Every structure is written in structure tokens, then in C-alpha cells.
Amino acid sequence: MERAAARRRAGDLRLYFPIARWSACNAGRTGRLLAVEKYVLAKRGLFDTDARRKPYAWELDEETRLELDRLLGQLDTALAEDGTGPG
Fold first, then answer.
1. What values do phi and psi take at 78, rounded to 5?
2. pTM of the model
């Protein structure tokens, strides 16, 4: 039983890592990290909106938004199946 739970947790981490990697790879690029983190935090309910103060150099495009939504959806599904996630 404990081994199965450890495998599920490892699977959850594999789902989270693409989001963390995207953030880490864009940390030095002006505005990208903030745009992604603000979007994710707004999706999680910590902020009412993902709006940022201007001026900013980069805006979250639709392709990136859809990819983040897909990754977050996979993570939510995995965590809900485990009984530890939102929902």
C-alpha cells in the first residue's frame, strides 16, 4: 500500500515539474516568470485576477495560457484521484 502511494506521489511530481521547469527557465526573462506565476496563483484562487501593473515587457499569450491550463488540469486530476487535491 505504501509503495503504491509513493508511486502516485512520484507521478504527481512528474505532472508538477513541467510547470516548475517553465518558471525556472523563464526566471531571468523580464516579466515572463511573473506573468506565469500570477496566472497560476489566480487560477488557484489566491488572486482575483492575473492582471499586472504596467509597464511590463511580456504578456501571457493564448498558447502559453492553454498549456498551463492543460498542465494544471492534469495535476488537479491526479491529486483529486489521490484525495489530496482541490475539488
1. -65, -45
2. 0.70
Q: Domain map of the chain by residue range?
A: 2-82
- Find, among 71, 65, 73, the residue nearest to 35 by Cα: 65
Give dist(CA 37, CA 20) in Å, integer.
10
For residue 66, what is its C-alpha cell?
A: 492553454
pLDDT in tens, 19-65: 777 777 766 666 777 888 888 889 999 999 988 888 777 788 899 89
Provide the residue type at 38 as one letter.
K
CA separation (Å) from 83 to 19, 61, 87? 21, 32, 9
Contact 19, 37 (CB under 8 A): no
Cα–Cα distance measured from residue 54 to residue 50, given in angstroms and rounded to the nearest whole number = 13
Say if residues 82 and 75 touch (Cβ distance below 8 Å): no
